[in-house]
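Data deposition worksheet. Section B asks for the primary sequence of the deposited chain exactly as it was used as input, without tags or linkers unless they were present during the calculation. Section C holds the resulting structure in token form. Section D is free text for depositor observations; keep each observation to a single sentence. Incomplete worksheets are returned to the depositor.
Section A, Depositor: J.P.
Section B:
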Amino acid sequence: MDLGQLWSAIIRGGAGISDKEFVRREMQKFLSSKERKNILTGRKYYEGDHDIKQKKRTMSIENSTVVQDASNEIPLNLPNNQLVDNKFDDLVDQKVNYLFGNPLEVKTDDAVLTELLGKEFHRQLLNVAKDAYIGGKGYLHPYIAENGDLIFRRMKPENVIPYWHDEEHSKLDAFIYFYDMDQYHLLEKTNTVQYVEFYKPDGVSYYIYDNGSLRVNADKEKSSYIQYEGKVYNWPSVPLLVFKANSIEQPLINRVKSLQDALNEMYSMFLDRLQEDPRETLIVLRNYDGTDLAEFRRMLAKYGAVKVRDDGGIDTLTIEVNAGNYDFITQALKRSIIENGRGFDAKDDRMANNPNQMNISSMYSDIDLDANQIEVEFQATLEQLVEFYHAYRGLSNATAPKDVEFIFNRMTPVNEGEVINNCKASIGILSNETIVANHPWTANTAEELERLQQERLQMMQEMALQDYITGGDDDQPEE
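Section C:
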């Protein structure tokens, strides 16, 4: 029994369901799952669409004779600010650019692999890292294009349902991928179709999902993964590279959402209080022309005025807004978002007045912890990427490198003078390669070592030429 037959036996075991019915049930379950909701929430928050946008100012009128709605609340004609101070997208961008902002250094003697993992792949890796922080994991799908090139396609985590072989989530058995596509007729949008692809070890099947029902996509037949020079092949494993943010695949939004919501609420509430709001005061009502206090509050909020008898009146006890309290709370919330999200404060006092390397390392200690976790996960997945590259090269019987090393160059600010002096002091103790790799001006270690070697060779040639011209004795005395 091959892997494809084994997987079919697993999903049908005991229930006798087909692939189509399995995919339909899984789609229905995933679309309403908490996991996908968390991913979509992270995506919305990164784009600035926060829960504060749903903020309303209402008043309960349970004891009022005024006509009520089903919720016993009525909207108030009051300032309703919905301010967003988006610290979540700062955290995501900080983390992504800290570890992935500099190009990935690939140590290999394979020119084809070096070109494959060049600038375009660097851009993809940035987007996948962003997906990983937003959704807990990001995905790349390897496939071979019609021209025979190996391509990596990004798949958003909210559109992928993985099926793992083990509890550690280290090996995939299958996965579902779905995406929406708008349909047009005469340049006008008619509807949106949700296409579904089911990837198993023996190939991929295509479906269309529509309001809880699933049908086979008549335009695409089930096929193997690879068609190369008139032959069909399958990858050695399910073609999906999973890049995890951490071992438990936790979205970053789960750590900081309540703090981000509180920060938005404080800013919005403060501005509401600064603007006209009759609820800022305690109202003392004398001889009011009416008996329903709930109606009185509603009329006051709606019109800003009420009717009283000739000998009546309203006294107020004003409650002053203390801006200092709001400032203290907002600053505390900002610090908590940075600490819980394991970011860094770029305006930290430790960065003032030419800080030493110890202060810089201290300020970046939290984001370093997070970067260490995601680097371990990405390194493991990049090894799997190399396995797919080996399989791709094997189609044409081409050789592939055995040893490939990936180096992430973190964008940690350094005291360059201090680091350069340390490099100078390490000459004769450490290898030139180690010293060059740790020099703050080095962009690519291999290229820099090559330049040094060329410069030394040129210098030796110039010295040899000089010796030949002078007869090998520059210090010979004149006669």
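Section D:
Residues 49-78+253-340 form one domain.
The chain is about 45% helix and 20% strand.
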